[in-house]
Amino acid sequence: MQVKRMREDYGKLDKVEMSIWECCELLNDVVDDSDPDLDEPQIEHLLQTAEAIRKDYPDEDWLHLTGLIHDLGKVLLHPSFGGLPQWAVVGDTFPLGCAFDESIVHHKYFEYNSDSKNSTYCTKNGIYSEGCGLDNVMISWGHDNYMYLVAKENGTTLPPAALFIIRYHSFYPLHKSGAYKHLMNEDDVENLKWLKIFNKYDLYSKSKVRIDVEKVKPYYLTLIEKVSTTLVRKLGSTVQRFEWSHANAGLEIVVIRELHQRASQFFFAKRIGAPYDMYEVRHKLESNYGGNFSRIEHRTIQNSPFCFFANLTTYAHLQVIYRSATLMDLKRDDQTSAFAYIQIMLRARLHPKTTA
């Protein structure tokens, strides 16, 4: 039930919106405690894996990109994506609903798992049929599952083998020990060949040699543009700027990225005090863009007070990260945290969840 709940929650893809490369940079803040081979930030491992594959398979550009993005699901460890604990994100994965194979790491602890006492789940096939295909098998939750959902739901053009690698690269009982092959179908068998090739680079490309990020970045940006664009939703490239300064409050530069759907406007206003200040700001916004603007929240970021405005008329189409001139002066990590907070706060305020 926990795995289903996680898939339903994170499968909504409503946490944060950013490009693939922005996500790679976000992983500078993430260290996988389960990895004994490397204590460097995860972006180093991503680039080392991708570059090693690129060297040996120069014509398989889809495999290069797979090497770059295969671990991006580890952003679940980052506060912007919910800050899940390490045990819920990293480590080996395994099937649920059938017998736990002895090749699963720390197998002895399954005696404390209630599934091990379920007579249906304790058989070789469990709730599955032989040859049913791994796509029909429930796998324990982790960063593999999340990144697979992100790629699939965003309509990536990566080939099936790439999605198989992303989804099962932590499924070591399968590709290392040969367990659970009886559940595979013909497509799984073919894709497993690529996963085994990939696994050599995932495990053995790690080193202390630093990657020249700026040197390789243009190549991977080209691949990202070719087969996959954003981590959560596709953002357009058109940028509009609206500048206006209230005598007392001041409205910061606003950046709006246009989407396939009509985009909402969201604004940062600073040092708003008296009610007439609020009225002036709101009136200016509505006269420029139309709709019904409202102050959603007051928040202090880096000891600087801000008021957040949103167009309630068009909010249903809000799928974009917004920036202001003042926020752009912050360090990158602080910007990311601020953007994430704003989006989560707006969704909670304007679309509150109901509980049954």
UniProtKB/TrEMBL annotation:
Name of this chain's protein: Inositol oxygenase
InterPro entries, per database record: Inositol_oxygenase
Catalytic activity: myo-inositol + O2 = D-glucuronate + H2O + H(+)
Cofactor or coenzyme needed: Fe cation
Alphabetically ordered keywords of this record: Ascorbate biosynthesis, Cytoplasm, Iron, Metal-binding, Oxidoreductase
EC number annotated for this UniProt entry: 1.13.99.1
Localisation per UniProt entry: Cytoplasm
Keyword Lipoprotein: no
Residues the entry annotates as binding Fe cation: H45, H70, D71, H143, H169, D202
Family label: Belongs to the myo-inositol oxygenase family.
Pathway as given in its UniProt record: Polyol metabolism; myo-inositol degradation into D-glucuronate; D-glucuronate from myo-inositol: step 1/1
Organism this protein belongs to: Camellia sinensis
Cofactor: record remark: Binds 2 iron ions per subunit.
Pfam families with a match to the protein in the record: MIOX (PF05153)
GO term, biological process aspect, one: inositol catabolic process
Assigned GO CC terms: cytoplasm
Chief location: cytoplasm
Enzyme class: oxidoreductase
GO molecular function per UniProt: inositol oxygenase activity; iron ion binding
Keyword Ribonucleoprotein among UniProt keywords: no
